[in-house]
Amino acid sequence: MNKQIVLDLRETVRTVPGWPIEGVLFRDLTTLMKDPHALRMSCDILFERYKEKKIDKVVGIDARGFVFGAVLAYKLGVGFVPVRKKGKLPYETLEKSYDLEYGSGTLEVHRDAISAGDKVVVVDDLIATGGTVSATVGLVRELGGEVIECSFLIELPDLKGREKLVGCPVFAVMEFDGE
Ligand SMILES: O=P(O)(O)OC[C@H]1O[C@H](OP(=O)(O)OP(=O)(O)O)[C@H](O)[C@@H]1O
Ligand SMILES: Nc1ncnc2[nH]cnc12
């Protein structure tokens, strides 16, 4: 019988102060990802949460949302849709601009990636100000998709990101304060 591995996932996240700009406490998930038990536990938590929800597609946000989103899609047996930083997708796209904790940007999705009525879960590694995910939810809804929930490994509650997601449930595996 497999020995159960009890692990505090929070301890596998590395904090890097002052990156990419002064004043930011960067929560680095590469240390969680390189730990096989932490990676598996994180992905299993997401799978258990959505396995009965009749999800049609997982939307993952460039770039760190691709890691967890693709695993979730594989485990659910559904398709994966990448929402990418502007200029990376080759076919017809829809785009939205957004602000985040340390900058701004534009996200794109292929216009044919989501069909009207698709039940979608949006996955990213982290929600801070919520700018990135609210732009993503806007793209999914414009294509006729229904966002069942936005799902993260980490929420930074001090930055009040979930307040930007009106009418959209938010789930996070862990929370980290600003200090
Ligand atoms: O809630 P917000 O304030 O919008 O911030 C959260 C976003 O910031 C990070 O991505 P980043 O833009 O640094 O890109 P990366 O995943 O390519 O590193 C993170 O992966 C989220 O996508
Ligand atoms: N503090 C933070 N750590 C990691 N990723 C982020 N994205 C936005 N803010 C972040």
From TrEMBL:
Cellular-component GO terms for this entry: cytoplasm
InterPro entries, A to Z: Ade_phspho_trans, PRTase-like, PRTase_dom, UPRTase/APRTase
Record keywords: Cytoplasm, Glycosyltransferase, Purine salvage, Transferase
Pathway(s) where this gene product acts: Purine metabolism; AMP biosynthesis via salvage pathway; AMP from adenine: step 1/1
Primary subcellular site in the record, as a coarse category: cytoplasm
This enzyme's EC code(s): 2.4.2.7
GO function term, MF aspect, one: adenine phosphoribosyltransferase activity
GO BP annotations listed: adenine salvage; AMP salvage; purine ribonucleoside salvage
NCBIfam families, sorted: apt, PRK02304.1-3, PRK02304.1-5
Summary of the function given for this chain in its UniProt record: Catalyzes a salvage reaction resulting in the formation of AMP, that is energically less costly than de novo synthesis.
Name of the protein in its database record: Adenine phosphoribosyltransferase
Species per Swiss-Prot/TrEMBL record: Desulforhopalus singaporensis
